[in-house]
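Email to the structure team, subject: YHS domain-containing protein model.

Hi all, the expression group asked for a predicted structure before they design truncation constructs. Nothing fancy, just the tokens so they can compare against earlier work. One-line instruction: predict YHS domain-containing protein, return tokens.
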Amino acid sequence: MVNTNRDCTICGNNVHEYEELSVQYSGQEYYFCSDEHEVVFKRTPEKFV
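Reply from the structure team: attached below.
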């Protein structure tokens, strides 16, 4: 079985494949555990890269 879990870029919580939110930035994929964290990243991605 392949582990498809990822960690939230903002808080480090586990993000399961079926609830995955992600954004591509500078050729890299970033994952989030909530819509709010996705918004935070989009406002200031350079803080998390």
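Helices lie at 35-43. The chain has a mean pLDDT of 89. Ping us if the truncation boundaries need rechecking.
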